[in-house]
Amino acid sequence: MSNAVMTFPDRRLSPAIDQVGVEERAARFCTRSLKKETKLSGLRLAVTMLDVTTLEGADSVGKVRQMCAKAMRPLPEDPSVGPAAAVCVYPRMVKVAAKAVEGSGVKVASVATAFPSGQMRLKERLAEIRYCVNEGADEIDMVISRGQFLQGEYRAIFDEVAKCKEACGEAHLKVILETGELATYDQVRWASDISMAAGADFIKTSTGKVSPAATLPVTLVMLQAIEDFYERTGRMVGMKPAGGISNAKLALQYLVMVREVLGEKWLNNEWFRFGASSLTNDLLMQIRKQETGRYQSGDYFTKD
Asked: What Enzyme Commission number(s) appear in the record (predicted)?
C-alpha cells in the first residue's frame, strides 16, 4: 500500500452531503423495473454476495456447522445456486467454521475488536484480531470507536484502523462504522474517508445490533465515498451493507444502486457483500419463484 493511501485524509475532500438529494436519489432506486431474466440473474448474484452470519450468544458448534453447510450449498438440490461469499462468526467459532468450509471457496469472516461495542483497549482489540487470523479467519470485521469519533478524535480512529489492518496480516479488513450511531450523512462520509485512507479493504454500515442499520441513503453516501476515493487513489474498496436487509426485493435495489454508482467492476463478491442472517431464504424462495412460476413454502428451506 502506498504512503499516499495511508495519509490522514484532508477533510476538505469530504464534501458536505445534501440530505434531500441523497434521499431522493436513493428512493429512485426503489422504482427500477427488472425483466424476469435480469431479476433471476440478480437474485443468483446476491446469493454469492452473502456473508451468512450467526452472531448470537446461543451459537453452538452444531449451529455453526449447519450454517456453513448452507453457505456452501444454499439449495442442496441445485448446485448452480451459490455458494455464499463467506460465513461470519464470533472469534471462538472461527476454527469450527474454517474446518467446515475447508476447500469450498467460502471465506471465514470473524467479528473482532470487542464487537459490537468496541469498548476495549486497543491492545486487547489487536490481540483479538491476531487470534482470529491464527484460528483461520480470512476476513476481519472490526468496529470503530464511535465514542472517540463523535468526540472529534479523528486521528485516533485513523490510527486504530491502520493498526487493525496491520494486525490482519493477509486477512482482509472490513471496517464497521455503525452508521446508526453517527447521526448525520456528513459524519458517515467522514468516517468512510478516514477508514479507507487508513487501509480498510471494505467499509461496512452496521453491526446489526443497532437501529437503524443499513439503509439505501446511508449506503449511497458510502458508495459515493468509495467512488471518490478510487478516483483519487486508484485503489478499489469494497462495500458491505449489513442489518435490516431481509428481503430479495431490497437486495436487488442495492445491486442496482451499486451498478449505477460504481459500475460493473464492483458487482461481484470480491467488492460487494450483504451482511445478512435472514436474507438467504427469501433470495432462495424468489429464485424458485422465478424458475418455476410459484412460491415454495418457507418450510422447504432450512432456518440455519
From this structure: 4.1.2.4
Distance CA 138, CA 123 (A): 21
CATH of domain 35-53+60-293: 3.20.20.70
Q: Domain-by-domain residue ranges, the chain? A: 35-53+60-293
What residues are paired with 240 via a beta bridge?
204
The tens-digit pLDDT sequence of the chain (304 residues) is 433 458 999 998 899 999 999 999 999 999 988 999 999 999 999 999 999 999 999 999 999 999 999 999 999 989 999 999 999 999 999 999 999 999 999 999 999 999 999 999 999 999 999 999 999 999 999 999 999 999 999 999 999 999 999 999 999 999 999 999 999 999 999 999 999 999 999 999 999 999 899 999 999 999 999 999 999 999 999 999 999 898 999 999 999 999 999 999 999 999 999 997 789 999 999 999 998 877 666 555 666 6
Cα gap 177→207, rounded to integer Å: 8
CA angle 213, 194, 21 (to 5 degrees): 55
Nearby residues of 247 by Cβ (< 8 Å), 6 or more positions away: 279, 282
Facing residues of 15 across strands?
Answer: none
> Does residue 138 carry a catalytic annotation?
no
Choice among 51, 165, 204, 304 that is catalytic: 204
Active site residue 204: yes
Give the count of beta carbons closer than 10 Å to the beta carbon of residue 57.
5
SS3 of residue 239 by DSSP: strand
Q: Residue 212: is the preceding peptide bond cis (ω within 30°)?
A: yes
Taking Cα atoms as reference points, which of 242, 237, 150 lies closest to residue 197? 237
CB count within 10 Å of CB 232 equals 15
141 is catalytic: yes
Instruction: Say which of 70, 240, 282, 304 is annotated catalytic.
Output: 240
Residue with grid cell 415454495, as numbered in its chain: 296
Query: pTM of the full predicted structure?
Result: 0.94
